[in-house]
Each structure stands twice: as C-alpha cells, then as structure tokens.
UniProtKB/TrEMBL annotation:
Annotated Flagellar basal body rod protein N-terminal domain residues: 3-33
Annotated ranges, domain Flagellar basal-body/hook protein C-terminal: 520-564
Upper lineage: Bacteria, Pseudomonadati, Pseudomonadota, Gammaproteobacteria, Oceanospirillales
InterPro entries noted in UniProt: Falgellar_hook_FlgE_sf, Flag_bb_rod_N, Flagellar_basal_body_rod_CS, Flagellar_FlgE/F/G, Flg_bb/hook_C_dom, FlgE/F/G-like, FlgE_D2, LlgE_F_G-like_D1
Keywords: Bacterial flagellum, Cell projection, Cilium, Flagellum
PROSITE patterns tied to this protein: FLAGELLA_BB_ROD
Superkingdom assignment: Bacteria
Name of the protein: Flagellar hook protein FlgE
Similarity field: Belongs to the flagella basal body rod proteins family.
Length: 565
C-alpha cells in the first residue's frame, strides 16, 4: 500500500509541475488564462473496517485542472486590428464544421478574402453592415476593400455672422451737414450762376451718403453760405440715387443703365416706382443773398456721379468689393471638386446684404437649353436681419431698386455633368452681431475614395477611413458570455468551446447588457503571475522529492523483510 501512496503523490506532483510549467510557458501568450490544479485525497473504503477511524489513506489524485478567467492587463499596440475585451465577454470565432469557439486573444488579421481572422485562420464573427446599416445576422466579419463612389453635394448649411459694425460703401454720414466739415459729406461739385445784376455767384453742391443704398442727400451753398437772407437753406431736401458699378436695366426698355448713372433725383427718398420710371428732377438751389435773388439749376445730365468713392464692381478677388466672403469645396456627380464662393455685400443701413455666389471663380455658366449666361445664384438676391441681429429672410430685390420677394436660396447648375442640379442653401442660425464676420459651412458631398485604414470603437463598430476623408461603419463585432465560464472546454490556440457545464453561449453586441467594451489597438495579456508560479514550482518540486523519499523508504523496509533469515 505504501508504494501506491508514494506513486500517487509522485504522479500528482508531476501533474502539478506540468500545470505550473504550462502557466509559465504561456506567460506571454495573449489572452491566456492560467490553470490551477486541484487535488483529492484517496481512501480505500472497500477494505475490512471501512468507516472506522483507523482507515489509512491511499494517496492523492488530481480532482480537476481548472482555469481562472480573471482579466489580464491591457497592452497597447500600433495595430488597429489588435483588439481586447475590456470587461466581460469573449470574441466569437467560426471553428469550422458548424462549431463556434471563443477567445480573449484579439491578435486579428485580414486574409486574402478580406475576412477578419485569428492567427490560426479562424474567422471572427460579427454583424456586417450594408450601406451603413448594421445587420442582425451573425456571420463572418468582412472588411470590404472596394473604393466608395462619389456623392454629389445635395445641400449646404451656411451659418454666418456678419459684423453689425460693418458699413455700406461709402458709409452713411450720420453728422449734420456742415460745409466747413468735410466729414459731413462725400464729394462736391460747383456751378457758376449770374444774379439779376449780372454778378456771378458760386453754387456748391454737396453729396452726403444717406441710409439707403447708392443714395445721397444733396445740399447747396452760395458763395460759401448755406442759408439766404431769411435764414432758409438754399436747397430744400433733395435726394439723388445712382446705379451701382454694374450695368442694369431698371426701366425695362432693354437698355442697361451704365455704371453709376443717375437713376433718380427728387425731393423725397426714392421708391421702387421712382427707380423704374427713372424719375429725374433738376436739382435746384435758390434764395436771396444781400437782397439779390439767386437761382441755380443742375440738369440731371450734369449731376456728378460717385464713381470715385462708391464700391467697385463685385469681384471675388477684390475684398473691397464685398463686406464678407469665403470659399469652400462642393462636389459634382463624378466626385470632382468645385469651389463655391459666397459673398455678402451690405446694402444701406437697413440690415440688408446682397448675396453673390461663384463656382470656380465665376458667377454664371452657359445654360445648355438657351445658350445664354445664367447665374448660379439668382441676381439681386438679398438676406435680411431683424433689429435683434437674427436672420429674418431671403429675398429677390434690393430696395429701392426692386420690390423684395421671398425666395428659396439655391445654387443652380454647379455640376457640369448635370446643369439641372440644384444645391439648396440653408442659412438657419445666421446672425448680425457685433462680432467679427465668420461662418460655419457644411455640405454632404464627397469625391470617390480608396480604403485607407480600419479601426474599432468601444462598441465594437468597425470603422473604415477613406482617402477622401470619409468614414463608414462596416460592421460590428459580436461578444459572447456564459452562465458558467468555468465550464468552458479549452480547444487550443487560446480558444475555448462551450461544454455541458458552461451552458450555451449568449451572443450580443459590445457595451450591451453585461458585455464589456472593445478596446482597439490593444491586446489582453495573460493573467499569469510569474512570481506565484515560481513559488508553485518550488512547492511542486519539494512535494515530488518528498514523495520520492516515501517510495525510497518503503523500498528499504521491503528489502529488510526480504533479507530476513
């Protein structure tokens, strides 16, 4: 009996050495879970006297070799396909022959078919996406390597702030007119007239920018005096409105009024009807000076134009021709990039801005249907703000040159492959505050792109990055849990299969229920504590030596009995 007891102890110690040695050998194995050997003592209950207190033990047996599924430390790497489970759960693998395996080792690769696989070739399971929508069927995770097609821009969101401290050009003159103060007017012209006595007098006309766009209040002095003998001004309130720096047909006669041409002159602020009719009354000055009547009339054809002080014609390359502007990229149906320019030009003092748009530096294109030039953005488009600085609307028509009519802002014909293409422009959230002019631009188009790389987020989503700066969700990893993790059966290659004691796998998505999250660019180290294993190695060696001593002693006793004479 002593021999059997010693032999069982030697065998158990050898098994202890094997388990400990296996733990030590896999100390650097990703996702490895250390094992623990568990012993049972042996008693022969079939001999005479069984059940009494005098039974001598028969040795030891290995009751179980169990694994400890505590988490290992996370080691971060430079490989986006290296994955670790942070928390509860196992990666799900297709082990072949319709069976599943489960692992914590996330050293994944891509095979020739684009499947996500382990080093042993097992395919990682998950939920693939179609057009960005993640499906519900568990299948082999696939990373499509095909390029993504281009998408034409179909909408633009433009949120601007236009500095409320900006001014029209030339700026409105708020100060009262004073011929001795050049800051109270913009420019002048003179006229010599004779009185009833044949004496000549100099009439000076002063043009001061009013609140309305391209409109000036006109004042007059005679021989430097602004009032006559009665104290009345030599000129009653008079207004003059001029065309801008571009030709426009205001009266509908088919002939464009030239740049800076006089459109209206009269005693009241101009109306849309005045501009449409090109109402032009002579500018008259008169009164008595030193008891002598003096009168002068300035024919509309002689009125001096403001071409030397007014804003120049719109030119996207000339910042002085607009109040604020910027350029951004949009994309046509082939993915070709086009530069969209948007420019705001302040019109008077009534919180109104003309909006101009260019595509690739041009304001217009050839309409293939009519063969004529057509603007990308309709002419005379304006945006307005309320007194609180909030956007109030978009219109066609700039008072007093036209009656404002609400319009939907849109860029037409920007795509050379389809001139019928339209990009709606949404200015929601735009403001006119006393801050620097800025904008936030968003559009939904992009060019074609090649796959540049993939990565995983904490929810296990497989995110692809393309050379066109786009990203796409290609799928989502699956994780599995078990009612009894200790019941899993080792299957090699740092994987396990479900056993009768573990129960079936409960498969789900990371960060749902009790499942942990996924850490991309990281691997879970083994949970082997080398210090503890080295101590266990000493214990196993000591036990082996002690049991060998028992065997040696038993052998000596036996030899003594055999040698009796």
């Amino acid at each position: 009996m002593g021999f059997n007891t010693a032999l069982s102890g030697i065998k158990a110690s050898a098994d202890y050495l094997s388990v400990t040695g296996n733990n030590i050998a896999n100390a650097d194995t990703t996702g490895f879970k250390k094992s623990r050997i568990e012993f049972n003592d042996l008693y022969n209950s079939n001999v005479l006297g069984a059940g009494s207190s005098n039974i001598i033990g028969s040795g030891v047996s290995v009751a179980s070799v169990s694994q400890e599924f505590s988490s290992g430390n996370l080691a971060y790497t430079d490989n986006n396909l290296d994955l670790a489970v942070d928390g509860t759960g196992f990666f799900v693998l297709d082990a072949g022959a319709g069976t599943q395996a489960f692992t914590r080792a996330g050293e994944f690769k891509l095979n020739a078919d684009g499947n996500l696989v382990t080093n042993s070739g097992a395919k990682v399971q998950g939920y693939n996406a179609v057009d960005g929508i993640i499906g519900g069927n568990l299948e082999d995770m696939v990373v499509p390597t095909a390029r993504i097609p281009p998408k034409a821009t179909s909408e633009v969101n433009l949120k601007v702030n236009l500095n409320s401290e900006g001014e029209d050009v030339p700026p409105y003159i708020r100060a009262d007119f004073d011929p001795a103060n050049p800051d109270t007017y913009d420019y002048t012209q003179t006229q010599t007239v004779a009185d009833g006595n044949g004496n000549n007098h100099l009439i000076s006309y002063y043009y001061a920018k009013s609140k309305m766009p391209n409109t000036y209040e006109v004042y007059a002095t005679v021989d430097g005096k602004s009032t006559d003998d009665t104290g009345a001004p030599f000129m009653q309130p008079t207004y003059a409105t001029f065309n801008g720096a571009e030709t426009t047909d205001y009266n509908g006669d088919g002939v464009d009024e030239p740049p800076f041409a006089l459109l209206y002159s009269g005693a009241t602020e101009p109306t849309v009807a005045d501009i449409a009719n090109l109402t032009q009354n002579p500018i008259a000055a008169g009164g008595t000076l030193n008891g002598v009547a003096i009168a002068g009339t300035l024919d509309p054809t002689l009125v001096r134009t403001p071409d030397n002080i007014a804003r120049p014609a719109f030119d996207p390359t000339d910042p002085s021709s607009y109040s604020y502007g910027n350029t951004k990229n949009v994309y046509d149906a082939l993915g070709e990039t086009h530069t969209l320019g948007y420019y705001f030009i302040q019109q008077g003092e009534d919180n109104t801005y003309e909006l101009r748009a260019t595509v690739d530096g041009k304001e217009s294109y050839i309409d293939p249907t009519t063969g004529e030039n057509k603007r990308y953005l309709e002419k005379d488009t304006v945006v307005t703000f309320d007194p609180a600085g909030n956007l109030s609307g978009a219109y066609k028509g700039i008072p007093p040159f036209g009656s404002p009519q609400p319009v939907q802002l849109q860029i037409e014909g920007f795509d050379p492959t389809n001139r019928n293409s339209i990009i709606p422009v949404d200015l929601t959230g735009s403001t006119q505050f006393a801050l620097d002019s800025t904008d936030e631009f968003k559009q939904d188009g992009f060019s074609a792109g090649e796959l540049q790389g993939v990565s995983f987020d904490e929810d296990g989503n497989l995110i692809a990055t393309y050379t066109n700066q786009q990203t796409a969700t290609l799928g989502q990893l699956a994780l599995a849990t078990f009612d009894n993790t200790d019941g899993l059966v080792p299957d090699g290659d740092t994987a396990w299969v479900a056993g009768k004691d573990s129960g079936p796998a409960s498969v789900g998505r990371p960060n749902s229920g009790t499942l942990g999250s996924v850490q991309g660019g990281a691997l879970e180290e083994s949970n082997v504590d080398l210090t503890s294993e080295l101590v266990a190695l000493i214990e196993a060696q000591r036990n082996y030596q002690a049991n060998s001593k028992t065997l040696e002693t038993e052998n000596t006793v036996t030899q003594t009995i055999i040698n009796l004479r």
